[in-house]
Amino acid sequence: MPKPLPTTVHPSPIDFDLHGIVGVRLVDANARDVAVVVHQLGPIQTTLDRAPDITIRFVDRLSTRSLRYIGLDAAFSDDAFMVLRSKQKTKARILLPMKDLGRPCEIVCEHGLAAVPLLLAIVNLTCLAKNVLPLHASTFQHEGTGVLVTGWAKGGKTETLLSFLAHGAEHVADEWTYLAEDSRVSGIPEPVRVWDWHLRELPDFWARVPRRDRARLRALRMAARVTDWLAAGRLGRAGFPRLSGRIANLLRRQQSVQVPPHRLFGDRVGSMVGALDLVVFAASHDSPEIIVKEMDSAEIAGRMAFSLQEERQELMRYYRSFRFAFPQAANDLLDSAAERESRLLAERLAGRRALALLHPYPVSIPAIFDALAPHLKNGPSRSGNGTGRHKESPAHPDGAVTAENGSSRRKILVASSICPEALAELGRDHDVVCAFGADEETLRRKIADREILVFRSGVNISAEVMACAPGLKLLLRAGSGLDNLNLPYVEEHGIELLRIPEPGAQAVAELTFALMLVVSRHVLTGDQLLRRGVWAKGDLTGWSLAGKVLGIVGAGSIGSRVGHLGAAWGMKVLGCIQHPSPARAAIMAGKGIRLTGLEEVLAAADYLTIHVPKTPATRGLIGAEALARMKPGAFLINVARGGIVDEAALRQALVDGKLRGAGLDVHAAEGAGKISPLADLPNVVLTPHIGASTIDAQRQIGKRVIEAVAEFARRPASIQSKTLATSRREPAGAAAGMS
Which terminus of the chain, N or C, has fewer Cβ atoms within 10 Å? Predict the structure, then answer.
């Protein structure tokens, strides 16, 4: 019998660190509590050099007074939610801050738990919030090739891992693999569950299993054999064979052990970090043969989106209980987890070489290696940075290879998130590298051998970045604005620039009206009050749009659409542009827009909307002086770029009552952790630069990106020269309709 662990509380916190992604801190834990968490997360104790993401505080007893129960597994008080079940349905009491999961939070547990409920699911949600994709997958490195094996539960992931580790592969992960933006994969050293039949086929691993566990497996094996004999009816008692058969099946379900990876695999466990070269989709089928065949990585991404939702079901069940207890409270990370996973799956797996591994179940573990290993020897099929998907193809005159659609395969860097379906299609025909949200150093490294760069707003394409790509020939702006691109460098080096403004322009125009309506009809205030049970109908009288003056600063591609919508709403529409002419005035008049000067637009507008590009000339265009010239009680909407409107001056105008309200989709400081100086004002609506973020617009933009790349790839090499490229580039002012 092992000695019981001491119950003395550690005087200092105990920290765990999952590869710098998620930090966990135990407070007031005793040795048994620490051992429980080590069993769940593996021996990754360290001292955190940063604040923990998850704090787990242990106490002797949690109060159960004034609790209301939700079934047998959960309860709540006026201000807290409690989980009442732990491992194998054992009783427990855990205060779970469900609303804060995925962000820095503190969980409170009683001492002596068999396991911290939902801990791994909470760790995975925290990873997802940090743009790291948790994948239900086994991962290993074999002869220089990084292999990720995924599929539904019981699909053969662990069997594939064991088959390769038996031949010297390096272990990275068993149950969960974490796929970062830079294509690095990492694992968690939680115990590996191996079955008796696994170990009988792998005697080297059997010898590594602790003696006590081996004895237990032998005993279960013998007991199952005896009950099989009884089930065969040898005793002749009525009903006993059926009962014995059930007992035998129950015993077989117990014939597994959990062994720490370092004990089971020894020196085959390294840093548990590696590269990703090949994705294998493992599944069982009704044939006795093992089949390995090529598979589209986009199909794997689509399937695994639902597998990940299944793996999160227990957490979501408790989340539904939490929402039952607190209908007004919500966790946006949990609500959007499926969408985030689908997007990251499509992005991270796009263009990767993928195989399907179909096998009978149970399967011969050595046979998996024999069937799959030759396909690894064909090479990881990767470029120098490891994310392309290549096939043997005829040579192209300028050194490219020919894609399945007959055009030449091109080296593309996608620096911003685009439609997943478009990204997957690009990956099938071209060598695609993704760098979403990457810093400048990462961009410089990834762009080095690229010919085409696809980008949106939110990423800075500097001269220094482009200078690292001597073969850069085409820039595809999946949208309109060019304030994040060094245009002088593009012009000087003759790099072709192609924008795709139209699909996003319509989406931005629609959001402009959404902000106008929300801010003038008190929609957000009414929603928030009603969720708290406040019926404030008499306090929320708003303003109509019909009959009002709509003033448009920048009646170009987006602004003219806004004006056309305004005219349809019965508004009087005024607009200004940088270079007016009789011809432009006639075109605008056909859309219901009267062109005039900026001064009249400012003075007459009941609703002023901003649609100009951000340039030195437009920075601070709507400042204190411009705001002072506006009609008292007007509304201001900015969907152009942050910095065009002076936010400090706007705040003062709103506080003083000069303006009645404002809606901003763009901000001087954007990104996680940035808080607008207008955030505390009740007459302001703020959105996080989502103007072009509709499914429809992004699909249309993605389709145009594919068409543009295909057209470029079909050109003879001589026509792709940089000296001819600039003839297709539009003037920067035209990018926002201001020329």
Answer: N
